[in-house]
Design a protein that fits this description.
This protein has 278 residues and is an alpha+beta fold. It has one domain: Thrombin, subunit H (Beta Barrel), CATH 2.40.10.120. The protein is 15% helix and 35% strand. It is built from 4 helices and 17 strands. Strands 1, 2, 3, 4, 6, 7, 8 and 16 form an 8-stranded antiparallel beta sheet that branches. A 6-stranded antiparallel barrel has the order 10-11-12-15-14-13. Strand 1 and strand 2 form a beta hairpin. It is globular. 41% of the residues are buried.
Amino acid sequence: MPEPSVRHDAFIDAIMANAARSTLPFRQAHADRWHGTAFWFNDLLDSASGTEAISQYLVTAAEVTRYDLAELTLRPELCEPEMSAEKLLMTDFAEGWTVLGDLGVAVMPTAGLHAHGRRKGWSWVTDEITDGLAARHEDIARIGAEPRPAYILGHDVGEQDGERLQAVVVGRVARGADGHVHWDSTVPEGCAGAPVFVGEELGDDRFRLVCVGLVLPGAERNRIATFDRIRTAVRESGAGRGTEPVPSSPAEPDPEAGQHPEAGKRPGWWRRRKPRER
């Protein structure tokens, strides 16, 4: 078994390879508050025909969506053709989200975001949390009271200028006395709503990457809204009822990965996202 620091880097490499372009930072416009992270989720509706039919959503913490005018940061690597980073203002922001019961989670169909890009002459280039990455009941059941390494992929708020750089935050998750899964330490400002990952060991120095769910707002020991419940609640909510499922044959991310050859040569606590070279 690799040393913990080496395995941390292997997990981080897998997260960046499969999900680096899945996250989107946002906040209340014209106000230095309600900073959050949303991410793209593809809900697999049908794959029996050999061509996947999906409904696509942005997913985040409901608590950070309750205002009318939002500012989204469009990272250059999410646009084709690539543009310099810019801000996208969204009106009637709160109304665009469907709150999923008492989970603390909100979802927004992405049809409007795709239409905006087309009007402006560009298209989204994203990674998504897919059916292969999103945790199922058996994945969540394996998280017990013993803390285990976990990773938040979010956009914190820079101390100097508020820059929303992407970071991997290394911590641990465990099941609390309340029966819910919790993050074991402080979550940086701006990362509420961000996806949380663990690695499932498969033996022979192999592991499977799993997106547990998303981290909810809180001062400490933040609760994690888990994907076994999110997946069910999305389908029951009818959030995407007004949009057509998207037929696609995407290249599925590889959630099963081995140790990266460069693992262990980089620090494991913070990992800032840099634009991909084209």
